[in-house]
Amino acid sequence: MAKHPCDAIVIACIDFRFQKYIRDFLDTNLKDKTYDYVGFAGSTKNLKTILKQIAISVKLHDVKYVILIHHQECGAYGTASTPKKHAKELHKAKEEILAKYPYLTVDLYFLDLSGAFEKVS
Fold first, then answer.
1. E strands, the chain, where?
2. What is the C-alpha to C-alpha distance for residues 102 and 45, in angstroms, rounded to an integer?
């Protein structure tokens, strides 16, 4: 099967309250770039499933850049949806991604209800 190169893969939650913010963020930060977009409840909460999606994107689209986005008041996390918990989950996901694909660049973001993105380092 032929590859169709693409710049990035973006993983975010399906929560409708954040989709406009995410689109605006991507329009600004990935302007004139191509990307695969995965919307999944809890974003990287089900990491096994997300890793499969990344594997497909790497294999078919030769992506080199991963953007992981979590958000405030995520229903998939319930009462555990705190900035500290999301930072921990994002770092765990990044570690597992880089263990499989050390050549990828992985950026982590936390999105609050106002639409402000905070880069998680």
1. 8-12, 35-39, 65-71, 105-111, 117-120
2. 21
Share above pLDDT 90 across residues of the chain, in percent, rounded to a whole number: 96
Q: DSSP letter at 45?
A: S
45-95 pLDDT per residue, tens: 999 999 999 999 999 999 999 999 999 999 999 999 999 999 999 999 999
For the record, the structure tokens of 62 come out as: 């030769």
Whether the CB-CB separation of 12 and 43 falls below 8 Å is answered with yes
CA angle 110, 74, 81 (to 5 degrees): 80
Q: What is the CATH number of domain 8-70+83-120?
A: 3.40.1050.10
